[in-house]
Amino acid sequence: MPAxxxxxxxxxxxxxxxxxxxxxxxxxxxxYVTLGTNDLSRAAKFYDAxxxxxxxxxxxxxxxxxxxxxxxxxxxxxxxxxxxxxSATVGNGVMxxxxxxxxxxxxxxxxxxLQLGGKDEGAPGQRGEGFYAGYFRDLDGNKLNFxxxx
Length: 150
Fold this sequence. Notes:
Blueprint: E1 32-36, H1 40-52, E2 57-61, E3 65-69, E4 76-80, E5 95-99, H2 103-115, E6 119-126, E7 131-137, E8 143-149
Parallel strand pairs: 1-4, 5-8
Antiparallel strand pairs: 2-3, 3-4, 6-7, 7-8
């Protein structure tokens, strides 16, 4: 079954893009996503270098948690030591998808993730009409991708 996306302004679907278009004043559904880590400083170095490539900066941090975003009004990505003090583990079936503005940017960022020690989970390429993505795992084994639609 093909992917079906809804334009928040009109309520009509469109296969040509993978994001909702929000009207002024509306909020995106996702505010931020956190991934567990067992080594906050190692994760911070990985994400500082990787997310810096798309202009993201640390927007919030303390001794348990660090979050990055490209702007304060945009969704963020964070890494955290688990609140329950147990080891962070990878969720089976969990993935974070990070949108980029071109296929070439997706290629560059996938390559950067691997150079920083991430593991390849699927080379960048077309994954259907108008959807391009490259998949990887971070240093803690969390699965992410960089994707472009258009």
